[in-house]
Amino acid sequence: ARKSFLTFEPLGVIGSIMPWNFPYWQALRFAAPCLMAGNVIVMKPSRVTMQSGIEIEKAFTESGIPDGIFQTLVGSVESANHLIDSDVNAVTFTGSTDAGAKVGQRAAMNLKKCVLELGGSDPFIVLDDAIIEKAAEGAVKGRFINCGQSCVASKRFFVGKNIAKDFIELFIKKTSQLKVGDPTLIETDIGPLSSKGGLETISGIVEDAKEKGAEILLGGSEIDGNGYFYQPTILTNVKPNMRIAKEETFGPVAPITVVENESEAVRLANNTEFGLGASIWTKDLAKAEKMSRRIESGIVSVNNVVISDPRIPFGGIKHSGFGRELSRYGILEFVNIKSVRFYDNLSHHHYVE
């Protein structure tokens, strides 16, 4: 070809189905790259946080953006199905793995591109040479943010045997200082779980662990009174047959496993259906880089908890979904990458030029 170039053209209308746990941030995390690419959006917020979606649409309108660029759809699960089946050009979903599988199946039946940002069971690996104070502080932040109701919260803790005692003692001390209470008060560290069902699930996971031999080091039960509160909980003696070792724990519960070495830590970290994020705590950055390449996840943080950063792609593998949000790669998810080529003569042989 005499001349070739690529164009990046918006797909059109993107249907977005968003969750309740970070209703503003997660909606905007998807919306910003999508709009930058030239698409328009119809977003269905969770029925638990419908008002957040309504307020986002109001903010777009008040900022002077033309009508129809960002629209909010309020409704039930059935309305999400109608959205996927409508004439939207692509779909993005953030939520549970089970619901995401249904969204992906429905989108595929309509031959529509989709991005799925699903559950996680992120490993938090503390190696023997880690700075214990820093790691323990990170463990508290990583596990108990938003009462543990985050897809990238640290959910499984693997600690080197030589520092396990000191780390666990400090983790317990820092966790016991957290204030549980009214989430509208600035001094509160941990609020309630989002629903009665969420509380029952977390309570059931901990009770299952107790029955199968787990040792409760802190917490381990519901808090009486109004609201769906659960004590910040730390436990050890985790076994593979426990629910807490297999399921996503969407609540303030930290299971700790003491490991012999980094190889065992990586093996256990990868022994899950999820693959969203992971964190590694060590002074040896060369070792951390090698380990990061062995971890089966979309994101690895070294000496920090996993966070969303607009400059870096966000997403997972395995049952944590596919596709990416944020950064250049998030923008490219919802564009048509079109190849345009100019020729002087007809190609008689169809092989690479």
Q: What percent of the residues sit in helical stretches (DSSP H or I)?
A: 25-40%
CATH-defined topology of the largest domain:
Aldehyde Dehydrogenase, Chain A, domain 2
Q: Give the CA-CA distance, first to last residue.
A: 8 Å
* Number of E strands: 15
What is the CATH superfamily of the largest domain? Aldehyde Dehydrogenase, Chain A, domain 2
Question: Percent of residues in beta strands?
Answer: 15-25%
Overall 3D form = globular
Flag low-confidence runs: none
Radius of gyration: 23 Å
Sheet with most strands: 7 strands, mixed
Strand order of the largest sheet: 9-10-11-8-7-12-13
What string, H for helix and E for strand, traces the elements in order?
Answer: EEHEHEHEHEEHEHHEEHEHEHEEHE
> Judging by the overall fold, what is the CATH architecture of the largest domain?
3-Layer(aba) Sandwich
What structural class do helix, strand and pairing data support?
A: alpha/beta
Overall residue-averaged pLDDT value:
96
Count of spatially separate domains:
2
